């Protein structure tokens, strides 16, 4: 344990007080409001975490969790108690002036020392508190990530899929198709906690992807009718299989590849995985510039939820030593584990 600027405690293992803060943390301000139900499990799976916490009298009042991926540090959690950040939609300036100063000092210290080359995060551009965090610490938007849903009320097995446990057989293919992308990180692809699916034609692999299990609880769904939908969905036959506000279970894929960017093959692959997992919904976060996404986005029947909700945008934001504001020309790799 270390102390930074006599205000923050630095740990490499999560304390019980931090777990309590994160479990009660509600994400979102405008539109959707939800909680992650798998927080404790996720914390055990984080790669090389560093927990920067504001601790007082045995309680954790705030935390920023970093996943140190070589010199690219992902900001996993940014959670502060209402006593610290203010209970309203817009964080209190008075309460946060000292907080901002010390956090900026931490970012600057790590960048100037070379311990970190960059910090990055994903933020909802409709979330006031996320925007505040981004602006206060000089994070800049470098890419836009699509939140694409794929849903089936009664998924069918359209193609034979199988779970691959010997990852040595797929590593070269994954690297061939994804290693060139910015912020490519493959640690969570090869964990055996969640399945990696493939589809074959003969002996040839024609589709693959990692699928993470995720469970959320919605206090409010997105959209103008979100509050009402949260209450009535359990009574709507068409939607209640897909969305369960009190126990919303879905698959989150990453490193998805299909031969020739074939939209029909992608659709049959995703539906067959849903069938195998007895699930009804996939939430796929992918760079809008992705070659695969550009080829398939207007050619796939994404399902009922897509018709209702459309595609939501997430900003990929970054700070680095040069503070370069240029948008990335390259595709950004979206690690699904980071969103759930």
Radius of gyration: 20 Å
Main β sheet profile:
9 strands, mixed
The CATH architecture classification of the largest domain is 3-Layer(aba) Sandwich
Q: Return the CATH class of the largest domain.
A: Alpha Beta
What level of helicity do the residues show? 25-40%
Order of helices and strands: EEHEHEEEHHEHEEHEEHEHEHHE
> Can you tell me the residue ranges where pLDDT is under 50 for at least 5 consecutive residues?
none
| Average pLDDT for all residues | 90
DSSP summary, beta strand count: 14
Strand content: 25-35%
CATH homology-level superfamily of the largest domain: Gcn5-related N-acetyltransferase (GNAT)
Oligomer: single chain
The number of helical elements comes to 10
* CATH level 3 topology of the largest domain: Aminopeptidase
The neighbouring-strand order within the major sheet is 1-2-4-5-6-7-14-8-13
- Quick one: overall form? globular
Q: Helix- and strand-based class?
A: alpha+beta
**How far from one another are the termini?**
27 Å
Count of the domains: 2
Protein name: Acetyltransferase (GNAT) domain-containing protein
Overview features:
2 domains; alpha+beta; 9-stranded mixed sheet; 5-stranded antiparallel sheet; Aminopeptidase; 27% helix; 340 residues
Task: Describe what you observe in this structure.
The protein has two domains: 2-120, Aminopeptidase (3-Layer(aba) Sandwich); 146-339, 3-Layer(aba) Sandwich (Aminopeptidase). By secondary structure, it is α+β, with helices and mostly antiparallel strands. The chain is built from ten helices and 14 strands. It has a nine-stranded mixed sheet with strand order 1-2-4-5-6-7-14-8-13, sandwiched between helices. Strands 3, 9, 10, 11 and 12 form a five-stranded antiparallel sheet that branches. The relative contact order is 0.17. The radius of gyration is 20 Å and the shape is globular.
